[in-house]
């Protein structure tokens, strides 16, 4: 077995953890949408730009003649994106039809003196959705003689979210490390020479352009979601784990590059990807701030309504 230096091992492990994070990243949001029966919290513009970025990445990988595993992974991303977009379109269509048919949230009945068009959009809850404000939900439940949200545990009786998210991230990291170890032991993974990128003399400008384009699209994809959260002052309907795995994936991706080599040539070649990862991480952190601020605001409104 070939000798493996510490920085080569760290580079391989980081890259493998990054791949594991990206493979499982969309799953939490798919589950979140299914549990809510709604995709109202997800920006379709966000998913569409991301899908185009993955499509450019896939075509560029084929054009550049990259290794089959990279092409297969790019194809998986496209399929996963398509599944999430299809799910969102389905729920949006179903919920839009139910709203237009009844105009009332699940469990509500119309009063004869209540105008159909006199209700604010913020007071209309989608079936199975938690996106309605806690204050308005308390008001409706008390009117109907139902238990208010104050009697319902915050976590719905399940383990606290931060515990579940931490365990999920640790599990994904363990899968990544185990995958790399198995590949190394089976001689399916070998460290890339530090001058490996500079030896590629048959470069294809079109493929490189698609690679840069995908990086730009990834960087800009989150902007519509950030703006949507800001306009609605809410992150309800979004899976926090989805963005946590994105952060872990980009962090370990950048770490894999830097652990591999910090030579001037390597940094110049990988600068666009490093900038893309850093920019995406900054956007994910901004979304984390939105989660914290809007959740705190909702809890304050809930406490005020109880008092």
Automatic annotation (TrEMBL):
Lineage: Eukaryota, Fungi, Dikarya, Ascomycota, Pezizomycotina
Gene3D superfamilies tied to this protein: 1.20.1280.290
Source species: Lepraria finkii
InterPro entries membership: LAAT-1, PQ-loop_rpt
Principal subcellular localisation of the protein: membrane
Mode of membrane association: Multi-pass membrane protein
Compartments where found: Membrane
Spans through the membrane: 12-31, 167-189, 209-227, 239-259
Pfam families the record matches: PQ-loop
Ranges where the record places region Disordered: 104-150
Keywords: Membrane, Transmembrane, Transmembrane helix
Compositional bias segments (type: Polar residues): 131-150
Protein name in the entry: Vacuolar membrane PQ loop repeat protein
